[in-house]
Structure to design on (342 residues):
C-alpha cells in the first residue's frame, strides 16, 4: 500500500480509544480562554510561551505542568468545554467509542466539588453522543502519589454517580508508588461494581505489572511496556487476553523509549497480545489517536493487516458488551472491504 493510502486508511478506519486523560486534552488555546474567563493569571504570557514549556524530560516534569493547567478549571462549563473539545476531535478521527479517564483528586484539591466537574464532563458526553454519535464511558483514576485515605474518600464521593462511571484506574507518578498501596481501595471499588484498570510498567518496574494483576485484579494494563522484558508474564497476558493500552507518542515525549523504532508494539502483536494504540495526553504529547497510529506505523513499518488488527483490538479490549463489540467489528470489516474497492 502506498504511503498516502495507508495514512488515509489509518485515519478513516473505525476505532476505539481506551487510554485518554481528559485533563490531558487541554489545548493551550482553550487553557488561555478558560483562564481569562475565570480571571486566573497563568505564569505564561502567551500560547506560544506555554507550548514552549511543554519540553519535559520525564514523567514528573510533565505532571508538574499538567497540574498547573488543571488549576484553571473551575466551573461546570469549563469541564463541559474541555470534554466537548476532545469528543469533537475524536469523532473527526473516526473514533466510535472512547473510555475516558478523569482525575477527581486533582479537581477536589483545586477546590472544585465532585458534582461540578462530574456534571460538566457528563453533560458534554450526553450531548456528544446525541450530536456526534460517538459512544463514551468514564473511568475514574486515583492519583497514586496521594495516600490510600484520599483514594477511599474519592471513592465515597463518587458513589452518587456510580452508575455513570464504568471503571476505576490508577495514574500519576509510578515510581515509588506500587499498586500494593491501593489494594484495599480496589477491592472495595470492585465490590461496588467498578471495572479495575491501572497504569503499570511505564516507568516503573515489571513487578508493578505483576502486582497490579494479582493484587488489584485489573482487567486491562495501561501502558505495560515493561512486560516486554518478562517472557513468562507475556505468555500469561496473551493466554488470558489481558489488553495493553499503549501510547507511543507519550512514550517518546516522556523518554520511555528513545526512538519509536524501539517501541515494543510490534513485539506485542507478534506475541499475540491484545495491544492497542492510544493518545494518553494528546494536547501535551504532540498528537491525537490517528497521529499516534501513523507515527508508529511509519517507525515500525506496520502493514495494513496490523492496522486492522489494532482497530479490532481497540474494540475487543473495551468494556462494551459482546453485542456492541460485534457491531463495531462489523463496521471495521465493512470499512476494509469498501476501502479495497475504491
Ligand atoms: Zn496515562
Amino acid at each position: 500500500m502506498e504511503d498516502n493510502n495507508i495514512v488515509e486508511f489509518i485515519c478513516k478506519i473505525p476505532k476505539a480509544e481506551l487510554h485518554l486523560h481528559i485533563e490531558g486534552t487541554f489545548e493551550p488555546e482553550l487553557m488561555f480562554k478558560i483562564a481569562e474567563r475565570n480571571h486566573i493569571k497563568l505564569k505564561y504570557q502567551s500560547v506560544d510561551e506555554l507550548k514552549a514549556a511543554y519540553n519535559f524530560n520525564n514523567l514528573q516534569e510533565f505532571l508538574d505542568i499538567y497540574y498547573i493547567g488543571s488549576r484553571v478549571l473551575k466551573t461546570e462549563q469549563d469541564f463541559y468545554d474541555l470534554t466537548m473539545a476532545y469528543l469533537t476531535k475524536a469523532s473527526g478521527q473516526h473514533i466510535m467509542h472512547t473510555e475516558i479517564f478523569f482525575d477527581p483528586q486533582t479537581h477536589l484539591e483545586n477546590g472544585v466539588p465532585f458534582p461540578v466537574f462530574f456534571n460538566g464532563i457528563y453533560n458534554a458526553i450526553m450531548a456528544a453522543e446525541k450530536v456526534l454519535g460517538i459512544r463514551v464511558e468514564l473511568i475514574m483514576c486515583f492519583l497514586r502519589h496521594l495516600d490510600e485515605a484520599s483514594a477511599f474518600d474519592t471513592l465515597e464521593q463518587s458513589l452518587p454517580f456510580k452508575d455513570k462511571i464504568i471503571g476505576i484506574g490508577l495514574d500519576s507518578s509510578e515510581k515509588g508508588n506500587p499498586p500494593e498501596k491501593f489494594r484495599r481501595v480496589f477491592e472495595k471499588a470492585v465490590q461496588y461494581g467498578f471495572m479495575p484498570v491501572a497504569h503499570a510498567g511505564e516507568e516503573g518496574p515489571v513487578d508493578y505489572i505483576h502486582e497490579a494483576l494479582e493484587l488489584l485484579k485489573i482487567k486491562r494494563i495501561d501502558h505495560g511496556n515493561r512486560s516486554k522484558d518478562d517472557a513468562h508474564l507475556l505468555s500469561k497476558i496473551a493466554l488470558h487476553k489481558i489488553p495493553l493500552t499503549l501510547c507511543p507518542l507519550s512514550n517518546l515525549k516522556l523518554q520511555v523509549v528513545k526512538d519509536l523504532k524501539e517501541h515494543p508494539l510490534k513485539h506485542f502483536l507478534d506475541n499475540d497480545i491484545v495491544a492497542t494504540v492510544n493518545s494518553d495526553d494528546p494536547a501535551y504529547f504532540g498528537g491525537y489517536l490517528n497521529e499516534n497510529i501513523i507515527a508508529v506505523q511509519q517507525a515500525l513499518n506496520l502493514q495494513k493487516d496490523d492496522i486492522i488488527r489494532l482497530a479490532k483490538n481497540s474494540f475487543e479490549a473495551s468494556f462494551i458488551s459482546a453485542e456492541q463489540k460485534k457491531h463495531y467489528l462489523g463496521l471495521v470489516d465493512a470499512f476494509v472491504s469498501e476501502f479495497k474497492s475504491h
About this structure: The pocket of zinc ion is lined by residues 19, 21, 171, 199, 222, 280 (CB under 6 Å). The chain is about 50% helix and 15% strand. The chain has one domain: 3-25+84-340.
